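Run folding on both entries below.
>entry_1
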Amino acid sequence: MKRFALLLPLLLAACGTTSAPQLNAQPSIAGVDYVASFEATVLRDLQNLGLTSDLSAQAVASKSYLNVLKLTDSSARAYVKTTYPAATACTVNWGDGKTESVLTPTPADVSTEKKDHSYTSSGTFTITLTCGTDVKTAAFTAVIPVPASRNLFDSLTFQYRSGYSNTFYQYLGRTVTTDLGLRLETSDNNHYLVENNASGFKVFPDGHKAIAGYLTAGPMRIRTENGNTFNVASISAGNWESAEPTTLTAYGVSGNVIGTTTFSNSAANQQPVATNTVTWNNVSYISIAGTNQYKHFFVDDLGFTIN
């Protein structure tokens, strides 16, 4: 009688009443030993549920099984097994808008079907295995690290200093400036290295430098030096003189718009650099365009990672 009582929760889980058990104490990156231990637990679950033999030969009610392993802070692996006939569609929904099909019934020579998935944003997601009206769920919390500001351009050195609009500047006379794996491009050669002047008002945080570009000939662009995509969490920037809005637009590799953000602060009006937070992933390039073509825009820093 006691043995039957112990098996009852597992049998209910297989029939769709409750979700399959999950391991809790999970590391940020699952090591080989941890994965092996987790899979041993999955095998014990399947044995207790009677799901380790030839499933197609079982003259029992159809069952399904779901368990989820945390591979990294942002990726999960679903272990799935079903005895449903092929006519019953089974799917795994990852809770972030992504869904994929599952083989059913699970082939006899496969212990479980494994599905891996990576998340692109932080949050708690409900992973759902659905076979007809049979639904199993498991929760997964994804944590995407927020890139810290990188002190972009701060390692560049001045050869001379001139004063303008609450800043010191040096004319660089080039169309591309690179630093930390990023390149800032303009259509003309009006690049300036900019920092605070000696007055009491500070445009930038202490020690920061920026690159200013002229928007006369067209938008400025930011992309990676190696051509890879990059992820952006924050942008510190502003207008050098005009306070008319300047819009930054992030584009994906297929030309799709990922997001936009706008800066209206002006150093000439004694407004310091502004920091806008964004969630832009897999960016191909950022385009910077203003409504007034006779203006300069400066980029002080980005919180970014290169893929």
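>entry_2
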Amino acid sequence: MQTIQNEIRRHLPRSGEARRLFHGRGQTFEGYADLTIDSFAPVVLVVLYRERSQKWLDELTELLLAELPETEAVLLQERCRAGAPSRLLWGTLPETVEALEEGLRYRLRLGEAQNIGFFPDMAAGRRLVRERAEGKRVLNLFAYSCSFSVAALAGGAQQVVNLDMNRGALELGRLNHRINGLDPRRASFLSLELFRSFGRLRRLGPFDLVVCDPPATQGKSFTAESHWPKLVRRLPELLSGEGEVLACLSTPHLLPAFLDGLFAELVPRARLLGSHDAGPGFPEARPGQGLAIQHYRLGKPA
């Protein structure tokens, strides 16, 4: 437990901010590749990718309560089990739990589904969108719970269009806009399949910034190797003359060079403005195999 304790102490949350306390999935801590721990005050979420004994879980809970004494609940999600069930290790889960990040709030669905509605490792992406959004028309593809949209509007975006097939996720996205006091007239929510919707998106565009954050795989509707090329090829249809793209890759066996190669081949006038990862709170044993955020801009048409 000493390794976990040392890492938690390095990442203790400040002012209630959402925080990754322990990131074992990057395989930098021997024996803990199955473990992540996140703080969403006043709840600590433990996620396991292999089974651990109840004795080990009791020791971990004791450690967490000692290091974070204001904790009201410790929730375990077992990704190693069918359906990724959740159960309380300690305390009582509050009726409402939110992730606080740079002054913005995002409602969580703890205990309800595998994905809780918020990805802490995408903080760098949300920050970048917020910094680039002022006055822009933004298209948020694979929007899920619309955290990029919240960040864009907080950064002064003129309009955001959110697209995702999951109606429930978009409803959570609407709620995220309301709890942050954002003008509902500046955001729209489309429950559509992307590759059948380019005509409608063209009519809504052009967009100055397109955010692409697909899941690593989504059944037949999206697999990285098959669908990223289709998406990249068609992005210029949706963009203004010198529009920007934020392309997020979360497929461990594909490196950022995969996206760079696609843009070089299929959108040759695109230029890479920057490459970002999840940051020091998400260490990776092999650089490039965690989250990659590639930021491109279209050059002027010839």
